[in-house]
């Protein structure tokens, strides 16, 4: 394939490739950054959802950009507030009013047991998140000034949650980058046992990640899409993992070819010829899989689709063009002290050869044992619960969460973020009466009123985001929909959370089968077989089920998280199916290549020997990179990272090592039906010794 091997054809062409790569990188960073696209709505949902319609209708009402920040006072010992302490809190009203929109705040409202007092301070939510954060910070400073001894204050509510979410992502990108680089550097150093070699792929990988993030900034506005910190974090980790995997596969085959060829350019040309098919098939499988997210309802997932696709394309370009050029220019000495010389042998495949032989002796027993282990783990996921409450979203609880928890000890938990019902003005009173009859509704009062729309503000008793809260919102929607002429819709943050959950449930039903179909089609085209693709897809589905179950055990055990976020099933399935198939592609394409001269069983044994080390290294590295998502502040990202990490390890150490080989040994040539193993043309060189990254 001339388009790929040109990078390694000669010293001149290698220098040209590197020069073009540098110029491309500089050009990307010199391009002007387009104006970021405005999100479809605060949740990224379309207007077909009630919460978005409410958001749009309220935009024309007076005070639509004002939300209450709730100042929560309590004693540090949990006891009741004294009369003197309450009097001091009432005297603080003017200091808070100076920061309130409209210049007025109500007196403190005291809970039934006098342990908590709250003050609702209306704040403007107009402008950037940083402006909201500044207003919340000023309120917190004013509320905390000159408090009586033993009294604490916490500011919660919608503006405070927005401010704290912004704050926890401050510097998160840098932390993610530093930790990821450190993890990749350590694993590359251990893999290659060379003081120099690990630097080359690390530099290429890090540069690819930075270029990808820049390209995402340039491309997303073109499609009218917006991104947030979680989107860029996932894209960053994906690019690091994929580019490093491709580098490990290429370098292992290049080292193998160097043991049989004197000319390093010739060795690289043959290494590319043997690995390009697997890398391209792997990369385009991931690209097609992530592009299924373009069908997602939530806008951020469509942004992730574009960003991830751009990142994988950049990873393939780096792995097949830039990295080969850099490697051949630096020569054999790059591998010092384990320099591959012509005629030398490598001992990296012995362990995997012995393991393959053990599987070949009892393939049925080994295959059944591996399947049983995966099914046992998958069974644990059957009890998984979806839906994190508002206070369970953060890995480290910020003040807004702690304040909401304190408030909930004496007031309805829904007081922090009231639910909003929009209605025709003439039906406002009737909607108030209908809403008041719904179980879980504490109060329903008339709100702002315009010429065409009016609102009703509803406080729910359950904590936002819980199953009880979801039932209350559904009941409220059913009740107000029955008011004649009201054209009522239920929105606000609590209802929006339910709509996002429903959107993800719809996306799971639509996108998951499509991902499996696309992966199967790619495997059919790659392997020219029907049996092998079906079995490989089944193994990665089984691996995902096991990872999901194991992840659920980890969340409810050591991590103490009671539920999964609604986005976790879709995103973890996407990445695990796409990335899990990668290792099967690397193994099976090599097995098919060697089966042409050794037979199907011999080809699989040879493939295990020569790819065992590199695939294991790649899997461990990818698992570690996804685990790095845990440094980001949201439980959602931690959950995705844990499930993908466990799944990649299962794919690498059990599915690819034991289950897939056992199927091949059991079926023999029928594994390739209706095709036949590829017959490779003999090459005028000695057979290379087994090689792979340790």
Automatic annotation (TrEMBL):
It is a multi-pass membrane protein. It holds the Pfam family MMPL. Its main location: membrane. It comes from the Bacteria. Keywords: Cell membrane, Membrane, Transmembrane, Transmembrane helix. It is found in: Cell membrane. Residues 219-329, 537-665 form the SSD domain. The chain crosses the membrane at residues 12-31, 176-192, 233-254, 275-298, 304-331, 364-384, 510-527, 534-555, 567-589, 610-635. GO terms for cellular component: plasma membrane. Belongs to the resistance-nodulation-cell division (RND) (TC 2.A.6) family. MmpL subfamily. PANTHER family: MEMBRANE PROTEIN MJ1562-RELATED, MEMBRANE PROTEIN YDGH-RELATED. This is Transporter, MMPL family.
